[in-house]
Specification:
The chain is built from ten helices and ten strands. It is an alpha/beta fold. The protein has one domain: Alpha/Beta hydrolase fold, catalytic domain (Rossmann fold). Strand 7 and strand 8 form a beta hairpin. The two termini are about 25 Å apart.
Length: about 290
Amino acid sequence: MTYRSHFIAASDGLKLHVREYGDPNSSRVPVLCLAGLTRNALDFVPLAEALSARGHRVIAPDYRGRGLSDRDPDPARYDIPVELDDVFTVCTALDVGSAAIVGTSRGGLLAMAIGAAKPEFLRGVVLNDVGPILEVEGLRRIAAYVGKIKPPRDWDEAIATLKTIQGEAFPALDETDWRALAEGSFVEKDGGLVSSYDLALMDGLAKLDLSQPLPPLWVYFDAIGHVPVLALRGENSPLLSQETFEAMAERHPQLQSLLIRGQGHVPLLRDALSIDAIICFIATLD
C-alpha cells in the first residue's frame, strides 16, 4: 500500500497521526475518511487505495487517543467538539479546503458537525451506519465491550475474541476481513497485543444515560442537506434502525441508500459492493 504518514500538532499541542494517499495536487475531489469511536485510519485501507488509484487524494486521520496519535492525558477531551477542531487542524495543515467525507459511525457524526460549523467545506458525505437517531440498544452493545476486552495473547486469539463479540452480526466476513478488523483493534507491544485505542474512551460512554433514548440529531442531519449523501446501513445494525434509515431518505432530497447484507455495526467498507458504491458516488462530486 502506498501512503504517506504525517504527524500534526493539534491546537493543544497533542500529536495527531494522519495517512495520506494519492496526489496532493490532484484536481479531483479530495476525500476525508473519519473512523468510528475506537477505530483508526487502518479501517479505510482498501477504500483509500481504490480511490487514490482513480486520482483522488485521500486523508485518513487517527483521532487523538487512537492508532498512532498521542493519548490525551485528559479523557474528557475525547469529545466531538475537540475532535472536530482536530479535523480542521489536520485539514488546514494539509491544505484541504473542501472535501467529500466518508464518515463511519462517530465519523458520520463529525461529518454532520462539520456541516453545521463549516458547510462550505463539504462536497458530499458518505454516512456509514450512522444517522440522526442512535438506538440505545446499539450504544449498550458498544459500551459492553469498549475498554473491557482482555488483551489477547496473539492474533489468533484476537480474531477469536472479535468473532465471539461480533460474529453473529457479521456472517458475511471471511478470514481476511476478521484479520483486518483485528489489526485495527490491537497493536503489538512487549511481546503481546494491546488495544489500539486509549481505554479511557470508555469514560465518555459511562457518562451516557442509556436507560432512555438519546435526543435526536435531525438538526445536524439537516446541516448536510445542501450536499449529496450516500447512506450505508449494515443489515444487522443495532445502532441505525431501518426506520431511521428510511426517514433519512425521505427527508434528504439528494440521498442515496445502500443496505450492506451480512454485516452489522459497522460495515467494514472492504467488500466490492461498498467500495464500488462509494467510488461511483464520489465520482459524481467532481
